[in-house]
Amino acid sequence: MRPTTFTPLDLSDYDISPEQGFLPQGPLEDLPDSATLNQLGYELPKQLSARRVGRFIDEQRQLLQSMPEPWGDQDYQAKMRNLKS
User: Residue 13 to residues 19, 22, 77: CA-CA distances in angstroms?
Assistant: First the structure.
């Protein structure tokens, strides 16, 4: 039986840094062109704790159509930060 050698993972291959984790340097706090989506992002933590996310999203379908396209990585990361506050 041959010994197995493993190559260590490089965190940068996964956009992860030892200092910031998955968060980017100089992150956006809000999306400048999407007040509607910013508001949804601020409401989502309350809905998570109330276990109403599915119903909340279903009630917001008309607002979700107004989301700008296309989004970049910074846009998605800004929304993820809103979820944790």
Answer: 15, 11, 17
Question: Is the pTM for the entire model greater than 0.85?
Answer: no
How is residue 26 written in tokens? 């100089």
Q: In whole angstroms, what is the distance from residue 2 CA to residue 41 CA?
A: 52
Query: In the chain, what's the furthest Cα-to-Cα distance?
Result: 61
How far is the first Cα of the chain from the last one, in angstroms, to the nearest whole number? 52
How many of the other CB atoms lie within 10 Å of CB of 34? 18
The model's confidence at residue 65, banded by pLDDT at 50, 70 and 90, is low
User: 49, 45, 53: which is closest to 80 by C-alpha?
Assistant: 45
Rounded to 10 degrees, what is the CA torsion of 82, 73, 33, 47?
A: -30
C-alpha of 19 from chain center: 18
